[in-house]
Each structure stands twice: as C-alpha cells, then as structure tokens.
C-alpha cells in the first residue's frame, strides 16, 4: 500500500489531462453579470483576467467585494495591513459591522418568509423549515438571554450541539452581542470538550439534552456535565430540548427554550470592529495540544460568502446541501455563514449517510430539491460500495453542482460521484482548504470560464489566492510540473488571524517555515497547465474520514494508559476512511496481560478521551520502537512496514538498534 501522498501522485500521472468533460459552456461570460463588482476593474473582461486582477490588485479586488457584499455600520478606512512574516493580518480596519445583521436582518427586510434553514432531522421526512424572520427572532431572543445572563462583548461561549436551528441561532446570537463562539463537534468526548472549554476560558456553554443520530440517542448533556466538572470557569449551561426525555438539571443549568420565550424579539446588534473575534475553532496540529484558530468578523464573512456563491455557482433560490457537521470549519463556512450571508437556503443535516439506509442522501436530495450537494469523499467511498441502486432510486434532477471536501478524492469515488450521483451532467468540484484558510482556496471553479475539470484535482486558485510550491531548500519552485510544500504567497481576508492565547505558535507553524508566505502544512503537485493537486500532509497530522487528528494527540492518550511505556501512531491508507490509525505500543516491563484485552482497552480509551474516529484500527505491541541515536522515533520506517514497502525502508544506519525493525516486520506480518 502506498501512503496517501504517493498514491495520489501515482494516480495523477496515470490519468493526467485525460480531457475529461467540459462542464460549463465555453461561451465567454459577461463579467459584470458574473460578478457585479468587477465593473470597475480595468482590463477585466473574463474570469481568467479577473483571477489575475484579483491577485495583482488584491486590495482593489477585496475592497470592491467588501463594499458590495457586506452591510457596514461604518465603512472601513484601510483594506489591509498585513505582514505575513510577523503573523500580522488585518483587513478592513476602521470598519464596523455586525455579522448577524449581515446574515439575517438585511434578508428579513427583503424576503422575511424565505426559508433560511431546512433542518433535516435524523428521522427522514421530518424536516423543519425556518424562515429568515423566524431565525432572526430566535437569534434575538437568544442574544437577549445571553446578555441578561451576563455574557458580554469579547466573552467566548462554547457550543456543544449537533446541527440544528438552535445551534445556528446560538452562533448568530453570539455574533449579535459581540461574543465569540467556540463550537465543539458533538462527537468529541467529555475530556476533549473540557480541554477546549478551558482553553477558550468560556463561562457559558450551550448544549441540548440529547442528540439523535442514526436512530440512536446521544447523551450530550451528560457529556457536558462530565466535562464541566474540570472547568472551574463555567458558570452556566444552557440546555435546549431535542428529545422528550428529561435530563438532570443542576443549579447552573438553564432551560434554554423556556427562558428564550421570555425574551424580546428585538436585540440591538453590537457594532463590531472588522478585526474583533468572530469565533475560535479548535483543530489538530502536529503536537498533542489542539489549537484554537481565531477567525474575525468582516474578512471571514466576506470570504465565506464569496466562495460559497462562486465555487458552487450558487444562485438565489437554490437549496444548498452541505452535509458537514457544524462542529467543523466546513459547517461554519458552508452550512452557516456563507449561505446565510448570501441570503440562501441551507440544509442542516443531523443524520448519517446510511441511516435508515444507504439511499439517505439521495432521498433527501429528492425531497428537499437540493441544488448543490457538498460532502466528504469518505462518505462517497462508503456509499459506492452499497451499489448504484440506492442512488438511481431517487430523482436527482435538481442537482447542479457536487462538491467534495476534506481529503483527497480518489478517481473511483470521483467518477462514481460524477457519473452515478450527478448523472454525468453536474460538475464535481474538489475543494481544497483548511480550518486555517476560512474558506475554499483551490477548486476547479470559478476562475476559468472554460472550466474543464480533471477528476480528483482541486486545480485552480480562488480569486485573490496565489499558491506557490516550495522545494526542500525553501525556494519557490519557478516551473510547473513539479511538487513541493504548498504555501500561499499573499494574505486573503478569510485566513485565520492567530491561535487563541498563542500567537507565537501561530507564527512558528504558519509563518516561519517559509518567511513571507503562509505555510499550509500540505504538499501539492502543480501540473504543466498550472493545475494543483493536493498530495497530503507534510506533518504528523492524519486525515481520518475527513477529520484531522494529530498522531501526537493519540500517542498522548495511549501513553497515559498505565500499562504502556511508549507508543508511536501513524496513518495508513484505508479504503473507506482515506487514512486509518495504526498504533505501535511498547508495554511496561513485567506487564503480564493478554494483548487482545489491552488492545481493546487502548482503543476504548482513545474513543473516550478524544473521539471515536481517532481510535486506532490496529495496535501492534512491540518490544521497542525504531529510534535514531538521539532518541527520535522513526515513524517513516513504521509507515513503510505497515504499507508493506520493505524495499522502501531507506537508510536505517541512523537507527539506534536496527534489530528493532526486524522484530516489528515479523510482528506486523503476523498481525496483518
Ligand atoms: C485536507 C477541512 C485533499 C488537507 C476543510 C488540509 C484536502 C486538511 C482537501 C484541512 C482536498 C482538505 N483534497 N486534501 N480537497 N480538503 N484537505 O482543517 O490535508 O479539517 O490541510 O479543513 O484537510 O482539514 P480541516
């Protein structure tokens, strides 16, 4: 088995530039009909010149977009003030606005009864529609309640909820009163949640009594109870009701639905500065501690709105179906902020792709008349195994664009998505981006009018984005048909501004590796034609079912088990998940136990301490790990062993004790 990166490169070289399909008409479009703000741009006559203009006249481009797309309380004085080498990123300073007004009030003025949210609840056919007027009312009541209960501008509220209208109203209520939100994916364990609450210093948490997913109840309130035991800052927990089942309410708990009803539907929005914090979102890095990336108001919203409209060709009246959980950046930008800033109708998907059966997505597409469907390759790979009949059963004629996000999409999955799901007529946009980038940075559309799409390639930079590839010496690769470390050469409004409470880590991670450039942590290949293909992470972050997890985070948990002396965790190619988790563990001397039991125990501990998706698929017990003489674990060697690439083990002369490798190879062949 080849690792992700090599697999991808090998597969591109086989299929590169098979002229695949021309998905949009080759007619030259009227550029101002396409993007009205382009009217004032000199020399811009089509999308490729618009792309060039947006990069070489970045300030002009973003200023026009910001004026056109956002409602300002006070317009900005400066477009940008950035110095990437010092991690200084500021956009639209002097400007004041309110994000909830941009997402709600301005649409309520023009179309109050338009559906903002379609809550696709776990039980098929029980969707709930929420209009802009209703969502504004909910948001205002909730904003008033938070204010009355002492939440102030600048505070950070943690939200631990599945996708539901109340979760969206909670995010927007925070934005309305100037508090930052910190949404924690509701699949995270109590320990992971409490770590994030503590780091964010939240005194308020919002949750639901129970979640419902795949026909099962999820005890979210109980998890919060457990989490807040180790969070002395938490003073109040608001509990919304998703199921009829009562949960234990302590003195600090507040029944959210009841209390909201007592509040007024008018809530004065705070006039926020462009660079005030809108939210923190924790994500995994290459060290054990997750980092709270910080996104701010104006730049983030503008970028989410613009990418949502153009990458997916979103038109007014379309129903946008992003099935990502709101606990991830994809849910933030393309379930909530992008679609709502554009006055769109967005679907909140509470269920799973196979509940009650593998036709769930497509039955939903038919019932809700979804026009753009945005999901993860891992789900596509899973569904294609169930066969085409689950797709063909349903009418998908409303679909116009299919999107893919979060991990590389392999050719088989891409082709199935395109030919079966999209009946060969919908463009598939493979979108590359990260929590750090705030929105999509590379995708086949919209920057080329003659948008040929090559399977599984993110291809073209979005407006204002200038990718570069660095060679191993840190020089910008000047020619194409080459691979390197993917960096972005100039700032864009949607990028993260810092890591909460740790600007130094932000600088070290993103700004210092290639001074003057934003380093993404991903590797990429750039074809002769200038199209980009993401080849995978360059650091110790792996991507399991589209979810990021640092191998060090898993090792930390495994190492805490009393029987374990040390461990090493790697990612390996997995058919459905993209990458699976493989752990090597050295048990303490004298531990006399059954490997099978310990193995299960370790897996359970990782599920309990982080989340289910991080739990190792395989654990191999070894006497020792391969280490350099200076004591560094050689994960590269472990990866090669798991991939069965013994020829590729490389130079083992730096190993402290080369016999360790032979033992591991032997043990691995017995295990697999
Ligand atoms: C990976 C998710 C290949 C990449 C939006 C990135 C991708 C990490 C793609 C970010 C793609 C995301 N092709 N790899 N289209 N999209 N990735 O922060 O390694 O959860 O750095 O953001 O996912 O994951 P995150």
Structural summary, described in words:
The strands form 9 sheets. This protein has an 8-stranded mixed beta sheet, with helices on both faces. Strands 6-5-18-17-19-20-21 form a 7-stranded mixed beta sheet, sandwiched between helices. It has a 4-stranded antiparallel beta sheet with strand order 23-24-26-27. The protein contains 21 helices and 32 strands. By secondary structure, it is of the alpha/beta class. The longest helix has 17 residues, at 132-148. Bound molecules: 5'-O-[(S)-ethoxy(hydroxy)phosphoryl]adenosine. The site of 5'-O-[(S)-ethoxy(hydroxy)phosphoryl]adenosine has 22 residues, from helix 12, strand 21, strand 26 and strand 27.
What's this, in brief?
The protein contains 21 helices and 32 strands.
Number of strands: 32
Biggest β-sheet description: 8 strands, mixed
* Sheet with the most strands: spatial strand order: 13-12-9-7-8-15-16-25
Backbone structural class: alpha/beta
Helix coverage percent: 25-40%
- The Rg value, from CA coordinates, equals 24 Å
List each distinct ligand once.
5'-O-[(S)-ethoxy(hydroxy)phosphoryl]adenosine
Distance between the termini: 13 Å
Rounded mean pLDDT score: 92
What is the overall shape?
globular
Number of helices: 21
Unreliable residue stretches: 1-28
- Report the portion of residues in β strands: 15-25%
């Amino acid at each position: 088995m080849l690792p992700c990166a090599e697999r991808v490169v090998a597969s591109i070289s086989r299929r590169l530039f098979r002229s695949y399909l021309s998905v949009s008409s080759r007619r030259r479009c009227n550029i101002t009909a396409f993007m009205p703000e382009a009217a004032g741009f000199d020399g811009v006559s089509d999308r490729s010149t618009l792309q060039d203009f947006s990069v070489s006249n970045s300030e002009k481009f973003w200023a026009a977009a910001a004026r056109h797309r956002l409602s300002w309380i006070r317009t900005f004085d400066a477009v940008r003030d950035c110095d990437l080498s010092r991690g200084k990123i500021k956009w639209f300073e002097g400007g004041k606005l309110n994000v909830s007004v941009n997402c709600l009030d301005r649409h309520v003025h023009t179309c109050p009864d338009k559906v903002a949210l379609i809550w696709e609840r776990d039980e098929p056919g029980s969707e709930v529609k929420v209009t802009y007027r209703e969502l504004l009312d909910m948001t205002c009541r909730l904003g008033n309640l938070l204010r009355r209960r002492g939440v102030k501008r600048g505070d950070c509220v943690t939200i631990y909820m599945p996708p539901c209208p109340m979760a969206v109203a909670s995010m927007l209520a925070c934005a309305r009163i100037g508090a930052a939100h910190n949404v924690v994916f509701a699949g995270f364990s109590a320990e992971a949640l409490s770590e994030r609450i503590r780091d964010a210093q939240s005194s308020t948490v919002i949750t639901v009594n129970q979640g419902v997913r795949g026909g099962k109840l999820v005890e979210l309130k109980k998890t919060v109870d457990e989490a807040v035991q180790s969070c002395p800052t938490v003073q109040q927990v608001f509990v919304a009701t998703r199921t009829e089942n009562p949960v234990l309410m302590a003195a600090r708990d507040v029944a959210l639905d009841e209390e909201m009803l007592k509040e007024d539907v008018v809530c004065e929005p705070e006039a926020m500065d462009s660079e005030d914090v809108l939210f923190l979102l924790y994500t995994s890095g290459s060290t054990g501690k997750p980092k709270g990336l910080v996104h701010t108001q104006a730049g983030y919203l503008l970028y989410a709105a613009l990418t949502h409209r153009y990458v997916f060709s979103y038109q007014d009246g379309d129903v946008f179906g992003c099935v990502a959980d709101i606990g991830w950046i994809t849910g933030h930008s393309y379930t909530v902020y992008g679609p709502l800033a554009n006055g769109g109708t967005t679907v909140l998907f509470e269920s799973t792709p196979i509940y009650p059966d593998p036709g769930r997505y497509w039955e939903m597409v038919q019932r809700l008349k979804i026009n753009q469907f945005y999901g993860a390759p891992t789900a596509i790979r899973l569904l294609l195994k169930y066969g085409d009949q689950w797709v063909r059963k349903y009418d998908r004629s409303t679909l116009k664009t299919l999107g893919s996000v979060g991990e590389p999409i392999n050719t088989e999955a891409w082709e199935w998505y395109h030919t079966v799901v999209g009946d060969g007529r919908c463009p598939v946009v493979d979108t590359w981006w990260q929590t750090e980038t705030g929105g999509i940075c590379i995708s086949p559309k919209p920057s080329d009018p003659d948008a040929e799409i090559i399977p599984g390639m993110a291809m073209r930079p979005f407006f204002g984005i200038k990718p570069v590839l660095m060679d191993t010496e840190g020089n910008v690769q000047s020619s194409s048909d080459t691979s390197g470390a993917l960096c972005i050469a100039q700032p864009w409004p949607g990028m993260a501004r810092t890591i909460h409470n740790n600007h130094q880590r932000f600088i070290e991670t993103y700004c210092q590796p290639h001074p003057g450039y934003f380093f993404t942590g991903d590797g990429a290949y750039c074809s002769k034609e200038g199209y980009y293909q993401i080849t995978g992470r360059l650091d110790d972050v792996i991507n399991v079912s589209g979810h990021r997890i640092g191998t060090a985070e898993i090792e930390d948990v495994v190492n805490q088990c009393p029987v374990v002396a040390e461990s090493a965790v790697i990612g390996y190619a997995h058919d459905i998940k993209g990458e699976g988790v493989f752990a090597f563990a050295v048990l303490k001397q004298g531990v006399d136990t059954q490997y099978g039991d310990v193995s299960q125990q370790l897996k359970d501990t990782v599920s309990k301490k982080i989340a289910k998706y991080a739990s190792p698929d395989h654990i191999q017990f070894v006497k020792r790990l391969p280490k350099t003489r200076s004591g560094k674990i050689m994960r590269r060697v472990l990866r090669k062993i798991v991939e069965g690439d013994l020829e590729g083990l490389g130079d083992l002369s730096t190993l402290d004790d080369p016999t360790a490798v032979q033992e591991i190879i032997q043990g691995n062949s017995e295990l697999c």
